Automatic annotation (TrEMBL):
Source species: Poseidonibacter parvus
CDD domains (alphabetical): RNase_HII_bacteria_HII_like (cd07182)
Binding site for a divalent metal cation: D6, E7, D93
Residue intervals of the RNase H type-2 domain: 1-183
Cofactor binding note from Swiss-Prot or TrEMBL: Manganese or magnesium. Binds 1 divalent metal ion per monomer in the absence of substrate. May bind a second metal ion after substrate binding.
Pfam families according to UniProt: RNase_HII
PROSITE patterns: RNASE_H_2 (PS51975)
Any Gene Ontology CC annotation: cytoplasm
Family: Belongs to the RNase HII family.
UniProt KW keywords: Cytoplasm, Endonuclease, Hydrolase, Manganese, Metal-binding, Nuclease
Protein name, UniProt field: Ribonuclease HII
Gene from which the chain derives: rnhB
Length: 188
């Protein structure tokens, strides 16, 4: 049996990285890369995936990303999924195995492998719901609208109000005249 793994939130300026992995128990129609589905369709598929899979979802906070680095957070999230979802094979969307010998990887797996498509939907919906949930706690930032991604409106909010505890301080912005902090250490 295959466990598909994918993430949401690798590139945003704020909010968590969310990594999901799962084994499907039965076929689910209309699965695809979460980015190719409407928010409404992702929300419709989410409970079906939860019901018809063995899954595990891992959240890594902005603070953890700042302290440990994105690669480390991805690797440890994948390892946690592998400990919690038993499978014969593990397949991650993308072009790297993060130094995990038993992890396979495939570019565009989220659009071509149903288990990875389902994982991408779990990760994306979980992250979007989190950003909507925290939006009232940080009303200056409109997290419910841009979900923490580097939109022009979000950058303008950071210019006006600075960063909050949900922001990734190590993600530098040219628009704010910030210099790059240096190359992230390879921790695997």
């Amino acid at each position: 049996m295959l466990c598909g793994i994918d993430e949401a939130g690798r590139g945003p300026l704020s909010g968590p990285l969310v990594v999901a992995g799962l084994r499907l128990k039965k076929e689910i129609k209309e699965l695809n890369d979460s980015k190719k589905l409407s928010e409404k369709k992702r929300e419709e598929l989410f409970p079906l995936i939860i019901e018809d899979s063995d899954y595990h979802i891992v959240f890594k906070s902005a603070k953890q990303i700042d302290e440990k680095g994105l690669s480390y957070c991805l690797k440890t999230a994948i390892e946690e999924i592998m400990q919690n979802v038993k499978a014969d094979e593990y397949l991650m969307d993308g072009n790297t195995s993060f130094g995990i010998n038993t992890l396979q990887h495939k570019i565009k797996a989220d659009a071509t492998v149903k288990e990875v498509s389902a994982a991408s939907i779990l990760a994306k919906v979980s992250r979007d719901r989190y950003m909507k949930k925290i939006a009232p706690l940080y009303p200056n930032y409109d997290f419910d609208k841009h979900k923490g991604y580097g939109t022009k409106a979000h950058v303008e909010k950071i210019k006006e109000f600075g960063r909050c505890s949900e922001h990734r301080y190590t993600f530098r912005l040219k628009a704010l005249g910030e210099e790059k902090i240096g190359v992230q250490k390879n921790l695997f």
